[in-house]
Amino acid sequence: MIQLIWLTVALPLVGFLVNGGLALRRPGAKAAVSLVGPGVVIGAFGVAVAAFLEALRSPLEAAVIVPLWQWLPVGSLQIELAFQVDQLSLVMLLIVTGVGSLIHLFSVGYMKADPGYARYFAYLNLFVAFMLILVLGANFPVLFIGWEGVGLCSYLLIGFWYGEKANADAGKKAFIVNRIGDFGALLAMFLTWQALGTLSFTGIAEKAPQLLQPGGAVVTAISLLLFLGCTGKSAQIPLYTWLPDAMAGPTPVSALIHAATMVTAGVYLVARSNVLFAMAPVSQTVVAGVGALTALFAATIGLRQYDIKKVLAYSTVSQLGYMFLGVGSGAYVAGIFHLATHAFFKALLFLGSGSVIHAMHHAYHATHSHQDAQDMRNMGGLRKQLPWTFALMGIATLAIAGIPPFAGFFSKDEILSFAYGRGEVEPIWKVFWGMGALAALLTAFYMARLMAMTFFGENRTGAREREHLHEAPWIMTGPLLVLGILSVVGGLLNLPTFFPAGRHHLLDGWLEPVIEPSKQFLKLEPPHGATETMLIGLAIATALVGLYFGYRLTLAKPIPTAHDAPPERGIWKLLNRKWYVDELYDEFIVTPLVSLSRIFLWKTVDQGLIDGVGANGSAWLSRKLGWLGSRLQTGEVGIYVILFLLGAAWILHTVVR
Amino acid sequence: MTELVFSVLAGFAVISAIACILQRNPVASAIWLVGTMFALAGIYVLLNAQFIGAIQVLVYAGAVMVLFLFVIMLLNLSNDAGDLRGWPTRLIGAAIVVAIAVPLLTVGRYTPQRLASEVTGAVVSGDPAAALPAGQAALAAVTAKGVVGAVAVPLFQQYLVPFEITSILLLTAAVGAVVLAKRKI
Amino acid sequence: MLLGPSLTLSAILFAIGVFGVLIRRNAIVLFMCIELMLNAVNLTFVALAQYHGLSGQVLVFFVMTVAAAEAAVGLAIILSVFRHRQSVDLKYINLLRG
Q1: Mean pLDDT of A608-626
Q2: A645, B106: Cβ pair inside 8 Å?
Q3: Which residues, listed in sequence order, are joined to residue A82 by a DSSP beta bridge?
Q4: B47 within some domain
Q5: Plot region of A58 (φ>0 → left; ψ -120 to 50 → alpha; else → beta)
Q6: Residue B83 has pLDDT above 80, yes or no
Q7: Measured by CB atoms within 10 angstroms of the end CB, which terminus of chain C is less buried, N or C?
C-alpha cells in the first residue's frame, strides 16, 4: 500500500473533478455530492491507515520514495514528482485525512441548505488533494505545489460566499499575505539549490552537513527565508493578519484549513527541514522567539473579541505560536505532537461553534431577525438547548487549557519544558518559556470566557428565537463526538516520563528516524526530576487559575447583547481592535504601495514608458521611418537620377584603381 | 600641329557643353549641343576615325539634333525661369559630379606606352604601336581599303548579327515613336 | 597619339553631362545632356580604337544608331506626356510615386 500512496492524492482529485462537474452541470444533485465528497476523503484515510499499518509491521529504515514521473529535467536540475513516505509524512497523512473526513461529514449537515453545495465539496476535496501533495512531497518543489495549491483553495473557500464583498476581500487578503511569505520560501529554495545542488529532502539531509557550515550565513539565510514562508502560511507575526479575516468562510472550512491542516504546513516544513534549522542557532532563536511572541500577542487579542469564531481564530494563531516555539527550540517531536492534539481539539472547537452558529442562524432565520448569529453577546445559557455541543466543547476547552489527562496538556507541557530546559543553557529561552506560560494562562482565561458567554448564564438570544434553538443533527454531532474522544486520549501519543506509561514515548520513537539528521547539531534534553515536577505543577495551576477567573469574571456582571453593548474603551478597546495592527499595516505598507503602484508603476511606467514609448513609440518610429523610406519613391525623376548617379559613382570608385 | 588643333577643338567642345547645360532657352541649348558635336567630329577625324566623324555630323548633328529641335519648336517651350533647380540641388549635383569625375580623370594619365605595357603585361620601350597588334592591323586596314572599307569589313563580318538586330531596333523605334506620338490610336 | 588628352576630354564632357542631368528640370534639355554623355563615351571608344582595333569604331557606329532610336522614342514619350500635363517640367511628371 505504501507504493500506492498516490491514491490518497488521486481520490480527492477525482472527487474534485466529479463535484466540480456536478457543480457546473447539475448543482441540484446533492445526494451524489454527499456521497462522493466525504467518500473520497474517507477512502484516502483508509489508504493512509493501510500504509501506516504496513509501516508498523515492517519498520521503515529509510524514507520510501515513490516516484511518479520526471517533472523538470533541466540540465543538472532534476526535479521529479515523487512522494516520500516516512514516519513524519504518515503522521501528517493520518491527521489530514482523518480530521478531514470528519469535517467532510460535518459539512454534509452544515452546508445542506446552501446553493453552492457541490462547489463547496469540490473545493474542499481539491484542498485535501493539495494538502496531501504538500505533506507527501519528496522535494521542495512538490511541497511548494501543495503549498500554493492550499493557498489557492483557501482563497476559494474563504471567499465562498463571494456575493458579499467583505468575504471576497478576506479571500484576497489571505492569498496576498501568503504570497509575501511564499516569496521567502522561493528564495530559500533557490539558495538551497545553489548551495547544495539538490532539492530533495533526503538529499538535503545528506548534503547539508557536508557542504554547509553550521551557524554560517548560508544555512541561516535558508532557514530564515523558509521561516518567512511559514509566517505567511501559518499565520505568525508579522503575516498573521489574514487568519482572523478568514473566518468569513464557512465554519467547517475554518476548522479544516485554518485550524487543523493548512496552517500547520509551516510547522511541518520546519520539522521536515530539521537539519537546516538545527545547523542555524540564530534561526532557532528567531523561530522560537516569534512563536512565543505570537502566542502571547494573539492570546491578548483573543481576550476581548466577541465573535466566537474570531476568538477561536486568535486562539489558533496563538497555538501555532506554541508549535513554532517547540520546533524552534529543537523539540521537533513536541511541535508535531502539539500539531496533532491541536488538530483534534481546535477542529472540535470550530465544529462545535459551527453547531452553535447553525442553531443561532436557524433561530434568527425563523424570526427574520438581522442580528449577528456569531456574536457571543447574543448567546448564553445554550447548554440547555445544545447539550452535546456543550459537553464536547467543554472537553475541548479543558484540552486547550492544558488540564490533564486531556490531550492539550501533554503536548503543551512538553513544549514548555523543552523551552525551559534549553533556558538552563541559553537564558533567552527562559524568556520564551515565560511568554509561553503567560500565554497559557490567557488561553485558559479566554476559553473559559467563551464557554461562559456561550453556554452559561442567562440566554440573551431573545424570547422568540429561543424556541428555535436546538441541537444539530447527528451527521454534525457525530464527528464532534469522535474528535472529543481524540481530544481525551490524544495525549497518550507521547506521555512524558513523569507518568509510568510514558516510558514508551510513542511519538518520540516513531519520529526518531526523521529527526536523526539534526541530532548531530542539536541535542536537547528535557528537564527531569524536580524541575519537571515543578513545571507540570505550574502548568496545571496556571490552567486552573485561568479557567476559574475566566468563568467568574465573565459572569460577574450581566452581559449586554450585541445590540445594546456600550462601545469599548481604553485598553479593552486596544485589545478588541487587535492592537490596530491591520490599521498600521494599511497606513504604512498598503497605502504607500498602492499609491506607488498607481502613480509610478501605472501612470509612469505602464502608461508612459511601456505604452507611450514602447507600443505607441515604436509605432511612431515605424511611421517616421516609413515616411523616410517613402521619400525615396516620390516619382520625381530628379531624385531618381541623383540616387542612380550616386550608385554609379560608388561603382566607379570600386572599379577604377 | 595636331596638338594645337586638338586643343582648340577640345576647348570649343567644353565651352559648348557648358553653355548647353546652362542655357535657359531650350533652343539655344540644342544649338550649343550641335556645336559640341561638330567639335567632336573634328576630333574624330584627328583620331584617324574619319568615317565616324562624317557619320557624327550626318546622323547625330544632322538627324538627332534636328529631331530635338522639331520637338522643342512643336511644344513651343519658353524660357522658363524655374527651369534650373535650386542651390541645394546644385551643390549636391556638384558633389556627385566631383565624385564621378575624379576617378574618371585618372584615365588621363594613359599614354600609349602605358596602355601597351598594361595590355602586354611588360614594360614597352620604343614604339608602342608595335606592341599592340590590333592597332597595327587597324592601321594596315585603313591603308589598304580606305577609311570606309576598313570599318565595313568588321561591320559586315564580325558584327553582322548585331547589325541586323540594330536594323530591327530602328524599325521598332520608328513604329513605337509613331504609336506613342499619335493623338488617337 | 592623343590618347591621354582624348580620354581626359571625354571624362570632362561626361562630367558636364552628369551635372546637366542633375541640374535641369526641362525634360528635353535633360535628354540633350544625356546625349552629351553618350558623345563623351563615343570619344573614348574612338580614341582607344587606334590601339585596340577597329571594333571601337564599329561600336561607335552602333551607339549612334541606338542613340538615334532612343531619341526618337524618348521624344515621342515626352510629347505624349506634354499632351497630358501641358508641361515638360519634371516636377509634374511624378505618377510613379510610391
Answers
A1: 85
A2: no
A3: A67
A4: yes
A5: beta
A6: no
A7: C
H/E stretch holding A73 reads strand A64-74
Q: How confident is the model at residue A495 (pLDDT cuts 50, 70, 90)?
A: low
CB atoms within 10 A of CB A622: 10
CB B58 within 8 A of CB B66: no
In a domain, C68, yes or no: yes
Q: Which of A22, A21, A146 is nearest to A82 (CA)?
A: A146
Contact at CB, C36 and B20, closer than 8 angstroms: yes
CATH number of the domain residue B1 falls in: 1.20.120.1200
Alpha-carbon span C2 to B50, nearest angstrom: 15
Q: How many domains does chain B have?
A: 1
Q: Is the ipTM of this complex over 0.95?
A: no
Q: Given CB atoms, is A163 within the 8 Å cutoff of chain B?
A: no
**Band (C15; pLDDT cuts 50, 70, 90):** very high
Q: Is the pLDDT of residue C63 over 60?
A: yes
With a CB cutoff of 8 Å and minimum separation 6, the contacts of A142 are A71, A79, A81, A82, A83, A133, A136
The answer to whether residue C98 sits within a structural domain is no
By mean pLDDT, which of A196-200, A330-334, A472-476 is the weakest? A472-476
C97 lies in some domain: no
| Domain extent at residue C75 | 3-92
Counted domains in chain C: 1
- Cβ–Cβ gap B99/A649 under 8 Å: yes
* pTM score, whole prediction: 0.71
* Helix (H/G/I), strand (E/B), else coil: A375: strand
Inter-residue contact A254 to A350 (CB < 8 Å):
yes
- Does some domain include residue B132? no
Asked if the structure places residue B160 within a domain, the reply is no
Q: Which of A61-65, A68-72, A217-221, B37-41 has the lowest mean pLDDT?
A: A61-65
Best residue in B96, B105, B110 for a mutation probing chain A (most A CBs within 10 Å)? B96
Q: By the CB < 8 Å criterion, does B100 face chain A?
A: yes
Residue B113 lies in a domain: no
User: Given this model, what pLDDT does residue C45 score?
Assistant: 93
Q: Which of B170, C33, B60 is nearest to B178 (CA)?
A: B170
- The verdict on residue C23 lying in a domain is yes
Residue written as grid cell 467583505: A166
Query: Looking at residue A548, what is its pLDDT?
Result: 87
Q: Which of B85, B92, B104 sits opposite A652 (nearest CB)?
A: B104
Q: Does the beta-carbon distance from A638 to C98 stay under 8 Å?
A: no
Verify whether the Cβ–Cβ distance A642 to C22 is below 8 Å. Answer: yes
CATH of residue C38's domain is 1.10.287.3510
Q: Is the dihedral of CA A137, A143, A145, A150 positive or negative?
A: positive
Q: Which residues of A touch B103 (CB under 8 A)?
A: 652-653, 656
Measured from the Cβ of residue B94, the count of other Cβ atoms closer than 10 Å reads 13
